[in-house]
Specification:
single chain, mainly beta, Rossmann fold, Methylamine Dehydrogenase, Chain H, 5-stranded antiparallel sheet, 5 helices, globular
């Protein structure tokens, strides 16, 4: 029986589709989509097979999708085979003729489908993805492993949507969380209690980063321009940066707080002077399109940036904004990047289920870390040790040591979409699709 939902979409809507796919998988619905299809390629047999073996075809509609030959072909293929079509209106547009009489869901502004639509999709896959159903919270556990990551300290609730962003203040006293419920919550790390709730007008509230040495929180929101600077204690906005950068999907401060890097769904990555707010420049290199995610090196001299819509990333000099190395061994697009504490290696992770470690001097692949069985959603490197944490939709967080190919420890029962390590390296925070934030204690190596 069909066991997946096929998603048809225009390439420019990829970031929304990635969120949609994660949301469906979290609710036990298997998903297939191919972000690499572009105009001019052949409508191949593999794609046709995925449509014909699907339980339904979601069509994400926007002006770009209406103009796409790929989307038209996928709709026709499904309709001719009597495969159920499920239109989602992401941006205002006229529905194609074959969808005129088909009920649609309104997801304008980047909303996710309502629970009623999720239940209809779940019924269509006939329980074939039941193994992906969330497990009870009490099953969250940590496997023994060499003394590192001693276990779960506590769980914090309050968000009603997936937690997509986490950030510790540089003094370690505050943890900020951003969610699809349109709120940012600030937590006291001494008591793990809520200090402040900040409501945003956008569909989501992520990514997040604290300005080093301060309690000023930088937050970008989905499908809006600019970065808001927020006093994390009072919740009041104190200023803005990157005002003309639209649809920012990731941001990071240089360790000395003088620069802000932003990466967006507009296929650009930009560097800003924090003091003046001036644009310092964009990162450009031929066919490689730096976008997001991105991360600063510990010394602030370089950035690792994933190339928009692809399986590659690059190392960039922040002074010249020129590419130093390209990292090109993933087989599907990159979802997270980070730097090791010593700055000698960069780490990337992707939909292909792998975590890959790269030498920043030579650009060579150091090792491929295999252990996850589904897409990797987040990375965090300890700032004080060679530990790497990776989260996945397989409901596991893997803890790795940079010199080994095998996981040091596995934290089970939690689908995390955000990870953050405390400044002293003693705490790992994970933010889940269930709105929960879990706090894990790190032991000694």
């Amino acid at each position: 029986m069909p066991g997946h939902i096929f998603i048809s979409y225009a390439r420019s809507d990829r970031s929304y589709v990635a969120r949609l796919a994660e949301h469906l998988e979290l609710h036990g619905i298997g998903v297939w989509y191919d972000y690499q299809l572009v105009a001019g390629e052949h409508f191949d047999t593999e794609l046709t097979s995925k449509i014909l073996t699907s339980a339904a075809v979601i069509v994400v509609l926007s002006p770009a999708a209406i103009a796409s030959k790929w989307v038209s072909r996928e709709i026709a293929c499904a309709d001719d085979a009597n495969i159920k079509l499920v239109p989602l209106i992401l941006q205002s547009c006229e529905k194609p003729l074959r969808l005129q009489d088909v009920h649609h869901e309104n997801v304008t502004g980047g909303q996710l489908p309502p629970p009623s639509a999720i239940e209809r999709l779940r019924s269509l896959v006939s329980g074939t993805s039941a193994k992906l159903e969330p497990e009870p919270d009490e099953q969250v556990s940590a496997e023994p492993g060499n003394g590192a990551f001693a276990g779960l300290i506590t769980s914090m609730s309050g968000h009603s949507g997936s937690v997509r962003g986490l950030a510790f203040s540089s003094d370690g006293t505050l943890l900020a969380s951003g969610s699809e419920d349109r709120t940012i919550r600030v937590w006291d790390t001494g008591t793990w209690t809520l200090k402040t709730t900040i409501t945003t007008p956008s569909q989501a509230a992520w990514p997040l980063a604290f300005l080093p040495g301060t309690h000023t929180l930088a937050a970008a929101t989905f499908q809006r321009s600019g970065v808001e600077l927020i006093d994390a204690i009072t919740g009041q906005t104190s200023g803005t940066l990157a005002g003309d950068h639209n649809d920012i999907c990731d941001l990071a401060f240089a360790p000395d707080g003088t620069k802000l890097a932003t990466g967006g769904n507009d296929r650009t990555a930009r560097l800003w002077d924090v003091a003046s707010g001036a644009l310092m420049g964009r990162f450009i290199a031929g066919r490689a399109v730096p976008g997001w995610p991105l991360a600063f090196s510990p010394d602030g001299a370089s950035l690792v940036i994933a190339h928009f819509g692809g399986p590659t990333a690059g190392l960039w000099d922040t002074a010249s904004r020129q590419r130093i190395h390209g990292f090109a061994r993933h087989t599907d697009f990159i979802t997270a990047v980070a730097f090791a504490a010593d700055g000698k290696s960069a780490v990337t992770a992707g939909i292909d289920t792998t975590v890959r470690q790269w030498d920043t001097t030579s650009g060579a692949l150091v090792r491929t870390l295999r252990g996850h069985t589904r897409r990797v959603t987040a990375l965090a490197c300890s700032p004080t040790s060679p530990l790497i944490a990776s989260a996945s939709t397989d409901r596991r967080i893997q803890i790795w040591i940079a010199s080994s190919d095998n996981p040091l420890r596995t934290l089970r029962g939690h689908t995390a979409y955000a990870l953050a390590s405390s400044p002293d390296g003693n705490i790992l925070a994970s933010g889940g699709g269930d709105g929960q934030i879990r706090i894990w204690a790190a032991g000694s190596l």
